[in-house]
Specification:
Elements lengths: L1 H28 L6 H8 L3 H7 L3 H20 L6 H5 L2 H18 L1 H16 L8 H8 L2 H14 L8 H22 L11 H16 L5
Length: about 220
């Protein structure tokens, strides 16, 4: 039993080392332009070691994306467990969520560039939905924070919307994620793209979305 535990611990350390190396190269060079051999060299292991833990490059990319989401979630969701946040009304909680999203965009631009390229990689290589189930689960770990704020807002009448909480969650998050990925990956194609700073566009989008569902006091 003890030997198994030690092996599992070492395997976890080695896996995280490989995923960290893969993410660094994926963000620097792009997923398509990074080979398994490149990752092995960066992680200071042999290619055979990579294939021991990840059967294909596609699996490595998917698990690297999951690993990235896990890191981001742990880093930016702590505020949602504070007493002040938990005591706030639904509108204030949603405002806080949009502020966190804006801060995330400012500090983690590589994350959104990676998500954009990962989506392209998934479509190009036709990675099945079944192989993406755990990746989706990692993303949906954030869902309760948003849905609970929306439900609270309806209950305390600080928010008002005609759609279901489920419909609101996916619409809000898809809107913000799509905007941030576009701005991070290729947001300055035309000269006019420089007229408004990307971070300010994200802030404005969040404020407009919040205003659109805020209860209008008579």
């Amino acid at each position: 039993m003890e030997k198994t535990t030690v092996w599992q611990k070492n395997a976890k350390i080695r896996t995280e080392k490989i995923l960290t190396a893969a993410l660094k190269l994926f963000c620097d060079r792009g997923i398509e332009d990074t080979s398994v051999e490149d990752v092995a060299k960066e992680a200071q292991v042999g290619p055979a070691t990579i294939y021991r833990y990840f059967e294909t490059k596609a699996q490595l990319a998917v698990e690297a994306a999951m690993f990235y989401w896990e890191q981001i979630t742990q880093k930016y969701t702590k505020i949602f467990d504070t007493p002040d946040y938990k005591a706030a009304d639904g509108r204030t909680q949603m405002a806080c969520i949009f502020e966190v999203i804006g801060e995330l965009f400012k500090k983690e631009l590589d994350f959104f560039k990676f998500l954009y390229e990962f989506d392209v990689f998934v479509l190009k290589h036709q990675i099945s939905k079944e192989r993406l189930e755990k990746y989706e689960e990692e993303i949906l770990n954030l869902k309760p924070y948003v849905t609970e704020a929306l439900e609270r807002g309806l209950a305390d009448q600080s928010l008002d919307f005609a759609y279901s909480v489920e419909q609101m969650y996916f619409s809000l998050m898809h809107t913000m994620l799509s905007l941030m990925q576009k701005l991070a990956a290729n947001g300055r194609v035309l000269p006019s793209d420089d007229r408004v700073e990307p971070a300010l566009q994200v802030q404005i989008a969040g404020e407009l979305l919040l205003k659109g569902m805020a209860c209008q006091k008579s």
